[in-house]
Specification:
Number of strands: 17
Shape: globular
Largest sheet: 6 strands, parallel
Distance between the termini: 68 Å
Oligomer: single chain
Helix content: 25-40%
Structural class: alpha/beta
């Protein structure tokens, strides 16, 4: 079958009639890049917010369903933002008309020096692994841009610089747009996610892992503790190196990173293995790595302490939008009494693994659920609690809460005098909050409200 991803680069778009479809963060970077190439692109979005562009290029944004798609069909190429599913019928219509539909990251990779690029993907753990890999490269004395899904867009003229290495976090959305892979790719985890975007779990797995096997791929450094990844080893490219949390038991170079949990130990070991594979000088020297690890700042909203009120510790793990990181968050506090706040946008994922883990956790665990997925989570937990009849179970029950502030207050009452209230939703924040950051800020406000309550 012919690969539908043409190997176009940004340089190929100079002078082309280009359309930009989707005007989010990456869409604005696409606009700046095309303007730097002398193009005057057509701008289209599903829900335009008004004219965009610099002062010398203020242009209206057409609505996809009201003239926008017709305008894109008159283009030579369409640069799509990752959030727009490649499986939408409009993409098929453009492709049938002979118009390439590409992504900005794929255009950049097509002409990058791939020997100095690391792509990091995975259902969860990819952001932490990307950020600490970039931190280690910088600490070893090299210039590194950490970007992609995690933040900086590598081809954005605003991020231009003379870098030695690029560490690029790749989402499953972005992976569908890549025509090539760098020689080294890291995969941190695999779990069902974004099923509505990909159209099913099998397609999600194929899309997520496709970055491992595009032309140019040589080595995948993968989470060896993941049974799902091992089951899908055939999708991991020509050669795989497995990394386990139990590897290098005496190694202490990652201690200065200050990251809790066994999963983060594995993330650090994956990062080191990738640096060695890239040939970064000093990556094989434990003393040099320990010095490089010093000063690492963990990602916000990922197991981030918010404060302590009345002896109760509050932890923001709002970045957890799937079951897998919530399991890791619980695992990061062994033996601690935890009030767990879960729930959010319901995208149909299976919460049985979360229910089983909570119901059989040896330390006391009380669950507070939020709309919209809360009732489904509660049903799974109640069923798992009835099944967990072993005398050592410490499952303290589950309560539906109308909103986050109510859950924080209820969790605080239960967790006193020395427990943890953990926001680790296992769900996205769509509908109620702008994003996971907004949800984390709301959590912090609710904690502050407790601290000033009479």
């Amino acid at each position: 079958m012919t690969d539908p991803r043409p190997k176009l680069s940004w340089s190929d778009l100079a002078g082309a009639r280009a359309g930009i479809w989707g005007m989010g963060r990456e869409g604005h970077a696409n606009l700046r890049k095309l303007l730097s190439l002398g193009a005057e692109p057509v701008l289209v979005d599903d829900q335009p917010a008004g004219p965009v562009g610099p002062d010398d290029f203020r242009r209206p944004v057409l609505t996809t369903g009201d003239g926008g798609l017709a305008a894109l069909k008159r283009c030579d190429v369409v640069v799509k933002t990752p959030g727009l599913s490649r499986y939408r019928p409009e993409v098929a219509q453009l492709s049938a008309a002979g118009i390439p539909v590409v992504g900005g990251l794929g255009l950049w990779l097509a002409e990058a020096d791939l020997r100095r690029v690391l792509c990091v993907t995975g259902t969860k753990g990819k952001s932490t692994t990307s950020s600490l890999t970039g931190h280690l490269i910088t600490g070893l004395g090299y210039r590194c841009l950490v970007g992609g899904n995690i933040g900086a867009v590598p081809y954005d003229p605003d991020n231009a610089g003379d870098f030695d290495y690029w560490v690029i976090e790749v989402s499953s959305y972005q992976a569908t747009d890549l025509p090539v892979s760098p020689p080294v790719v890291a995969v941190t985890s695999l779990h069902p996610d974004h099923l509505d975007w990909h159209g099913g779990v099998g397609q999600y797995y194929r899309d997520k892992l496709s970055a491992c096997s595009r032309p140019g791929a040589e080595l995948t450094v993968a989470n060896g503790d993941s049974a799902l990844l091992r089951e899908h080893a055939a999708l991991l490219g020509p050669r795989v190196e497995w990394v386990s949390e139990h590897d290098d038991p005496g190694a202490d170079w990652m201690d200065p990173l200050g990251l809790p949990g066994r999963h983060n130990r594995r993330n650090a070991l994956i990062a080191r293995r990738c640096l060695v594979a890239l040939g970064v000088p000093g990556a094989a020297d434990a003393a040099a790595l320990r010095a490089a690890a010093d000063g690492y700042q963990p990602l916000p909203n990922r197991l981030a302490p918010v404060g302590t009120v009345g002896g109760v510790t509050f932890v923001d793990d709002s970045l957890s939008t799937n079951v897998l990181p919530t399991l890791a968050a619980l695992d990061a506090f062994p033996g601690r009494r935890i009030a767990l706040i879960v729930g959010g946008h319901d995208r149909g994922i299976d919460y049985a693994p979360l229910a089983a883990a909570v119901a059989t956790r040896e330390a006391p665990t009380y669950v507070l659920t939020l709309p919209d997925s809360g009732p489904r989570i509660r049903a799974q937990l109640e069923a798992a609690g009835e099944a967990a009849l072993a005398p050592r179970t410490a499952f303290a029950g589950v309560t539906d809460c109308p909103d986050l502030a109510a859950a924080v207050a209820a969790g605080y009452r239960w967790a006193r005098p020395d427990g943890i209230v953990l926001l680790s939703p296992a769900a996205p924040s769509f509908g109620v909050f702008r994003d996971y950051r907004d949800r984390g800020e709301a959590f912090a406000r609710a904690v502050r409200a407790l601290s000033i309550s009479p």
